[in-house]
Write a structure and sequence with these properties.
Blueprint: H1 7-10, H2 24-40, E1 42-45, H3 54-64, E2 69-70, E3 73-75, E4 96-98, E5 101-103, H4 113-119, H5 121-131, E6 137-138, E7 146-151, E8 157-160, E9 166-173, E10 177-178, E11 181-184, H6 195-202, E12 211-213, E13 220-223, E14 229-232, E15 235-236, E16 241-249, H7 258-265, H8 270-274
Antiparallel strand pairs: 1-13, 2-5, 3-4, 5-7, 6-16, 7-16, 8-14, 9-13, 9-16, 10-15, 11-12, 11-14
Length: 285
């Protein structure tokens, strides 16, 4: 299976002209993305990948999926230790079951379509413009910068917040049923955890905060997951749900914590042990 070498061969550039920053078409796409991110914390660029490559995208993800680290465990929405010292009514005390798995960046070949997208300078500049950022950096984490999320039938990716402010993802294989992306737009802010609202979602009484999004393979999703509680609903049927996660940040040097890295990948590297957390806020991780 051959992967095209140029970004123009991967992306539907008639709809998404990445190469020419001055084009009216690109400016229109960027303006719409910014407006939707401002209003909802999320935007989806439908059919971003050329339709003839959607099967390649799926097949490459399916080949990577067996390399995922899987461990069902109890977590909370903040991905901090369950025995952390918190007030009795803090939503971080609500225990969730995490049953999804991740293929780490060091298991993804450089020739893979998702790797080429993640590291491409024109793609990064486009993403930065959509988020309204002067610059964009790859997540410095050697495992979490680019990964494939795998949710098997009977499993889900429970409610959580992202460590990094800006997340870019792409569904590569849908579930047969279930596996819906659900999120609570901007339920917290850099200076406010809004614990009551978060607790209401986690306890099932906050349905009014939740929006649901049906994604298709090859759609590009831009999301502000640091501030929007989100999950993938339980998957059912025969097929796993696969999605590529392209993690970027507006600051260089961001690396996941040792605790969270072990949760997601089952291992840590020297970079994680030596890292000093780089955050732009004081929110729980």
């Amino acid at each position: 299976m051959t992967v095209p070498g140029d970004l123009e061969e991967l992306v539907d550039t008639a709809r998404y002209p990445l190469a020419d920053p001055a084009s009216a078409g690109r400016s229109a796409v960027v303006a719409q993305a910014r407006a939707e991110l401002a209003d909802h914390g999320c935007t989806v660029l439908r059919g971003f990948i050329r339709p003839e490559l959607v099967e390649t995208l799926r097949a490459q993800g399916a080949a990577l999926a067996p390399h995922a680290h899987y461990e069902s465990e109890q977590v909370n929405a903040y991905n901090i230790p369950l025995d952390a010292e918190l007030p009795p009514d803090h939503p971080g005390r609500i225990v969730l079951e995490r049953g999804n798995a991740f293929v780490a960046r060091d298991r993804i070949p450089a020739a893979a379509l998702i790797h080429r997208l993640y590291t491409d300078a024109a793609f990064q500049r486009f993403v930065a413009d959509c988020f309204g950022l002067a610059e964009l950096h790859e997540f410095a984490d050697p495992l979490a910068g680019l990964c494939l999320n795998v949710v098997a039938p009977g499993m889900s990716h429970p409610w959580h917040f992202d460590t990094n402010e800006f997340t870019v993802s792409m569904l590569t294989q849908p579930a047969e049923s279930g596996g819906v992306f659900e999120y609570c737009p901007n339920i917290r802010a850099p200076q406010a955890e809004n614990l009551d609202a978060v607790r209401s979602v986690l306890t099932g009484s906050g349905a009014g905060h939740i929006q649901r999004l049906e994604l298709r393979p090859g759609d590009l999703q831009l999301f502000q997951g640091r501030f929007s509680l989100h999950r993938v609903s339980p998957v059912s049927g025969a097929a796993q749900r696969h999605s590529a996660i392209f993690a970027y940040t507006d600051r260089p040097g961001v690396i996941g914590t040792v605790e969270r890295t072990r949760q997601l990948f089952g291992r840590v590297l020297p970079d994680h042990l030596a890292a000093r957390a780089v955050r732009g806020d004081q929110l729980l991780d």
